[in-house]
Amino acid sequence: MRWRDSTRFTAWLRAAYGQRWNARWEEFGGLHLEPEEPGEHRWRTRYGEIRAQMCDELPESIEVRHGDRGYRVVPLLQVELTDPRAADLLRRHRQRQAADRDGGPPHPRQAARPDDGAGSAG
């Protein structure tokens, strides 16, 4: 997010009942919403959690189309190189894809659980 857009972003955060992450207390709330204030650029709103990287100018973007709509987004490789959490998520996704292709073990949520006999009819 561009620094020059921070006033408009702060107004949106207020309208969306935003609360800023307080690393000291390890919870949301108790801090000013404005990105210019000290603290992580992380908020919780009625729409979910938001993280921002503040910059003077937005990075180059590409257009991604979904149906008839186009969206300007940062290329995934750039996100992966600049955001460690996104990089970790993508690494896990790629590992699961490779395991599925290679016939590896199923994802833990898909693994069959041993039948303990509870609730079975027969």
Written overview of the protein:
The structure is a single chain. The chain has 122 residues and is α+β, with helices and mostly antiparallel strands. It has 3 helices and 6 strands. The strands form 2 sheets. Strands 2-1-3-4 form a 4-stranded antiparallel beta sheet, with no helix packed on it. The longest helix has 18 residues, at 84-101. It is globular, with a radius of gyration of 21 Å. The model is unreliable at 115-122 (pLDDT under 50).
Measured by DSSP, the beta-strand proportion falls in 15-25%
* Total beta-strand segments: 6
Could you say which structural class the secondary elements and strand pairing correspond to? Answer: alpha+beta
Helix content: 25-40%
Strand order of the largest sheet: 2-1-3-4
Which regions contain 5 or more consecutive residues with pLDDT less than 50? Answer: 115-122
What's the topology here?
Blueprint: H1 6-15, E1 19-22, E2 27-28, E3 42-45, E4 48-51, E5 62-66, E6 69-73, H2 76-82, H3 84-101
Antiparallel strand pairs: 1-2, 1-3, 3-4, 5-6
Outline of this structure?
This protein has helices at 6-15, 76-82, 84-101, and strands spanning 19-22, 27-28, 42-45, 48-51, 62-66, 69-73. The chain has 122 residues and is an alpha+beta fold.
Features:
122 residues, alpha+beta, 4-stranded antiparallel beta sheet, two-stranded antiparallel ribbon, 3 helices, 6 strands, 29% helix, globular, disordered C terminus
